[in-house]
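To illustrate the input format used throughout this study, we show a single complete record. The first block contains the structure-token representation of the backbone; no residue identities are included at this stage. The design step must infer an amino acid for every position from geometry alone.
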């Protein structure tokens, strides 16, 4: 964008609108956290937002984004208070806003062994689930929606509510506070609740700020909370893992 001197909010609004239109034509959209225009490609956007989320969870300071003063003001006018937001509680993996109020709801549908993700987040464009969960050297972020094995799911429904992986540990702490031991979970789910050290380092987290992972298998209440919220802690006694009910025929 050209650094044109603007004397009114209307001028800035025109510039912002033109900038966003040009970005859309280049298949880019706005990151509301850092105000950068980032690729709309699902894996690249998930990687970008995932870094914001992880750095917030691990309390890693991010460098200020160099911005064009005119375009920055224009974006603020265009989007009002929605620009330059902080990463929310239980953040959406594609925009970083809080999902606590029911916005950016996400579900997983299991069909013949494969998983399909749907989300009402405006920035969501889809996920290649298996490859995203595996991660890669170019896209190490494995923040994908996970169906919580402890939540009671709709009977006979293939579509189930999901939790973004980076929020999973705090979801369990808040929603299932009695479950604190590895034996209360399936091995696969216990592993999903913790983010691999290798992944966090690749996402820009200093090693000294990475909490213990499943390799140490401590009680859940002894694992450092990624979100740092007081509500995530629990002193409750462990309770047995919830088993799925079987319908009688």
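Output of the design step:
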């Amino acid at each position: 964008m050209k650094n044109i001197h603007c004397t009114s909010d209307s001028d800035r609004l025109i510039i912002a609108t033109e900038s966003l239109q040009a970005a859309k034509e280049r298949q880019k959209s706005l990151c509301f956290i850092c105000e950068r225009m980032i690729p709309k490609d699902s894996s690249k956007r998930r990687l970008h937002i995932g870094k914001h989320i992880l750095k917030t969870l691990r309390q890693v300071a991010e460098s200020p984004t160099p911005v064009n003063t005119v375009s920055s003001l224009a974006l603020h006018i265009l989007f009002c208070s929605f620009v330059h937001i902080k990463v929310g509680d239980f953040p959406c993996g594609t925009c970083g806003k809080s999902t606590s109020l029911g916005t950016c709801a996400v579900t997983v549908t299991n069909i013949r062994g494969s998983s399909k993700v749907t989300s009402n987040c405006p920035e969501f464009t889809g996920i290649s689930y298996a490859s995203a969960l595996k991660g890669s050297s170019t896209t190490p972020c494995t923040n994908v929606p996970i169906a919580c094995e402890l939540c009671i799911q709709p009977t006979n429904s293939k579509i189930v509510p999901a939790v973004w992986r980076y929020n999973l540990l705090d979801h369990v702490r808040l929603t299932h506070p009695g479950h604190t031991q590895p034996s209360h979970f399936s091995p696969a789910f216990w592993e999903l609740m913790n983010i691999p050290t290798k992944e966090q380092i690749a996402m820009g987290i200093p090693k000294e700020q990475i909490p213990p992972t499943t390799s140490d298998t401590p009680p859940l209440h002894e694992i450092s909370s990624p979100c740092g919220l007081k509500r995530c802690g629990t002193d409750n006694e462990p309770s047995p893992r919830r088993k799925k009910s079987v319908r009688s025929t």
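Structural context for interpreting the output: The mean pLDDT is 76. Residues 9-82 form one domain.
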